Amino acid sequence: MRQHILLEPDDTLPLLQAPVSAIAPAALLVGDPGRAQRAADLLDSPREVGRNREYVTFTGRYAGQPVTVSSHGVGSAGAAVCMEELLRAGVRRIIRAGTAGGLQPDVVDGDLVIATGAVRDEGTSLRLIPLEYPAVAATGIVTALGDAIEPESRVHRGVVLTSDLFYPMPMLGSSLQQWADAGAVAVEMELSVLLVLAGLRGVPAGGIFAIDGNPVASADMKEYSPHRDVVRQAADAAVRAGFTALTG
Fold it and tell me: The pTM is what?
């Protein structure tokens, strides 16, 4: 039987420092608190409902529907805190809109990737359930994101790699080429934990990503630069698609 801890409306989420009553049934997650603010600016009547550490949370309305936006920071462990608290607050539909590195030659800067699932190459979800449990995006979320993509965007679908490692060291090197050879389309750092947590609760979840580089092509990452217009525009397009998929 699925276990789902739910808090009371007058409770406050311990790490997000947001009242449970202020959390909408649908939530969009981003890594960067600054991107959370940009996302909130797309909402009608947005209000900041929580701010603590890397977790900044807003609630407003999109297409007439209530939506919460929250930042979760970098990496699976910290992101799991945000995801768990939102699920305990009663979120019933959740999408991560983030950035990722392309792992295939045709997945280039400014493209969008809709994840169908994630490789669990991180340490947090292993402490939740054995590795045999799959990190799979909800079919309805994948379809809704595809329908929400703006016509001018280049989009790919497929499995993404979720990894704890951002900067590899030469002693052990990088496994990215292995996962690229296996067909993974992109690499990021948090989605698999979301898909596992949501899957254990029976909550539809998914992810959409703006591509900001290719770590296979540039293994030392000396040329990595995510703060470019092409990336920002794609990240904003991912957020808009996420909102539309959550509220459509």
Answer: 0.96
How far lies 210's CA from each of 10, 66, 109, 132, in Å? 36, 24, 8, 28
* Average pLDDT of the chain to the nearest whole number: 95
Confirm or reject CATH 3.40.50.1580 for domain 20-247, answering yes or no.
Answer: yes
86 forms beta bridges with: none
Which residue, among 233, 189, 241, has the nearest Cα to 215 in the 3D structure? Answer: 189
In order of 22, 51, 106, 197, the CA distances from 47 in angstroms are 10, 11, 39, 27
Residue 182 has a CB neighbour count (10 Å cut-off) of 11
Q: Is the pLDDT of residue 181 over 80?
A: yes
Query: What are the boundaries of each domain within the chain?
Result: 20-247
- The residues annotated with a catalytic role in the active site are 212
Q: What is the mean pLDDT of residues 134-158?
A: 97
Q: At what angle do helices 229-247 and 33-40 cross, to 10 degrees?
A: 60
